[in-house]
Specification:
Number of strands: 0
Low-confidence stretches: none
Radius of gyration: 21 Å
Order of helices and strands: HHHHHHHHHHHHHHHHH
Shape: globular
Helix content: over 70%
Largest sheet: none
Structural class: mainly alpha
Number of helices: 17
């Protein structure tokens, strides 16, 4: 189950790396800084609604485990309806969102102008992106991770091809990167809906969704989604705050920051494969009310994830400088990125615990605990930045980020017993 999701997830930072590479080899650092700011804004907005994927995944896994076919259908349709409505609202409010978001960054005039252009193109894919979240969550919950691989490879593979064509062949620069992503996200949503219809009819031939507007079920779904929304917004604020603090050190440092973030994204999206597998297996175990299966799911997925995290550390240690040089040819950006590469080398063995616990808690739909743990971790992160940044400069920001990942793991770990206690059968 984890294998296809790992491959699918790795295509996401691969796309980010290609974006970084095609822009990073242009002459001026402000192009790369603009993509850093513009992509941070748009992904922060989209990822704020990541509850659509996580909520659908956990609920679908539990419905699948309890063999409730009508609810399996209804869970996706509820999520898709919310996703499309939210996407339309983002279209309407895009100017106000952008104006507020730019106040969080301190880029040059050229950087902010290009970041604005990037955002204004990307926002038109909002309904498609949020619909994709629901599709991916549903397929993970149904333990059909191969489809997740197909959709992600289609979207990101097409995006990479269009990136190279629009930027390198047509010379569209930042505009080309944004348009390539827009086209790819819409294409993936259309193909995903076609596959969903085929798969649901294969799972439940002639069946119908029921209770789509059932108040009790909607209330539970809303409660889970609101908690995950608060949790996700807190996480995204942490990353946006992270980038905004880096922007205080100038265009060269923020460009290097974007390069370093690619290492963290490769790590996160790769290890999340085991977290997604844990989501489906934990949810299925809880739906079947089987404590032994729950323990097996947690143990097996965690062991594999730790092993892969160690492999990441070894690769970053050996090839880190080479990867930096692949991502940018600007000498001053390379110098800054290599200077702080140490924090990415130790990140895998520190970050893995929070990734896995996220997957376990999503599968268990323990959203309140996820919300509380993230809010506490965010407070610790902000405090650490305020303490270490004046003393250590840019390196102090990375130290604070490391504390943030440790706090995420500890706060969720303290709540884990509640998950096993919720399953009566052993």
């Amino acid at each position: 189950m984890a294998g296809p999701v790992i491959l699918a997830n790795l295509s996401i930072p691969l796309l980010g790396a290609v974006d970084t590479a095609v822009i990073g080899h242009l002459d001026q650092a402000y192009n790369l800084a603009a993509v850093a700011i513009g992509s941070t804004i748009i992904y922060s907005i989209y990822w704020a609604f990541g509850f659509l994927r996580m909520g659908v995944s956990g609920l679908a896994a539990q419905a699948y485990g309890s063999k409730d076919a009508p609810e399996v259908r209804a869970i996706f349709l509820r999520g898709a309806l919310v996703g499309v409505i939210v996407g339309l609202v983002l279209w309407i409010a895009q100017s106000q969102i952008l104006q507020f978001a730019l106040t969080l960054f301190e880029g040059s005039a050229a950087t902010e102008s290009l970041a604005t252009l990037y955002f204004e193109i990307r926002v038109w894919s909002a309904p498609a992106v949020l619909l994709n979240y629901c599709l991916i969550g549903w397929f993970i919950g149904m333990q059909n991770t191969r489809v997740v691989l197909y959709l992600q490879v289609l979207m990101n593979g097409l995006n990479i091809i269009l990136d190279l064509f629009f930027v390198l062949e047509l010379g569209w620069g930042v505009t080309g990167v944004a348009i390539a992503t827009l086209i790819s996200e819409i294409t993936a949503a259309i193909v995903g809906l076609i596959i969903y219809r085929r798969e649901i009819n294969r799972y439940d031939p002639g069946g119908k969704a029921r209770h789509i507007l059932d108040f009790r079920r909607i209330k539970r779904t809303l409660a889970i989604n609101i908690d995950i929304f608060i949790r996700t917004v807190s996480l995204l604020f942490a990353f946006a705050f992270f980038t905004s603090q880096a922007s205080d050190f100038g265009d060269t440092t923020i460009a290097a920051h974007l390069v370093l973030i690619q290492f963290q994204l490769f790590l996160a999206f790769g290890l999340d494969g085991f977290a997604h597998a844990a989501e489906a297996l934990v949810g299925n175990s809880i739906g079947a009310n089987n404590r032994l299966a729950l323990r097996h799911a947690v143990t097996a997925s965690s062991k594999w994830a730790v092993g892969v995290a160690v492999a990441y550390t070894v690769v970053y240690l050996i090839a880190g400088n080479f990867i930096v040089e692949l991502l940018t040819s600007i000498p001053e950006v390379q110098t800054v990125a290599k200077e702080f590469l140490f924090w990415l080398i130790i990140s895998p063995i520190i970050s893995i615990w929070s990734f896995m616990l996220d997957g376990i808690f999503i599968g268990a739909t323990k959203s309140r605990e996820m919300r509380n743990g993230m809010v506490i971790s965010l407070a610790i992160f902000i405090a650490a930045v305020l303490i270490f940044k004046p003393i250590m400069g840019y390196e102090g920001i990375w130290l604070a980020f490391t504390f943030f990942m440790i706090a995420r793991a500890i706060t969720l770990g303290l709540y884990y017993r509640r998950i096993e206690a919720s399953v009566r059968s052993s």
